[in-house]
Specification:
Length: 91
């Protein structure tokens, strides 16, 4: 059985889509995202639609949840890696 990986799903996005996703997860509107990235609202909406499709979620809220889980997973894995390095250094 294949498990779903938020990090892998986010990694499949383009750089611009990841930028948009981060801002969606920060609860910015399409207008605010457009201003911040220097693109039109229509382009933001197109990116958000592709993100939702690629992540297989129903809404931008689902995409924000994936972004948050992905970051939490990365933080967790980094902390595990750090703990392992500390043990190796101590051992």
């Amino acid at each position: 059985m294949q498990t779903y990986s938020p990090s892998a799903a986010v990694a499949a996005l383009s750089n611009r889509e990841r930028q948009v996703l981060v801002l969606v997860a920060e609860d910015l509107t399409d207008r605010e995202i457009g201003r911040q990235l220097g693109i039109t609202e229509r382009t933001v909406r197109a990116h958000v639609s592709r993100i939702i499709c690629k992540l297989g979620v129903a809404s931008r809220v689902g995409a924000a949840v994936i972004a948050t889980r992905s970051q939490m997973l990365e933080d967790f894995l980094e902390s595990l890696d750090s703990q392992r390095r500390t043990r190796v250094q101590l051992g």
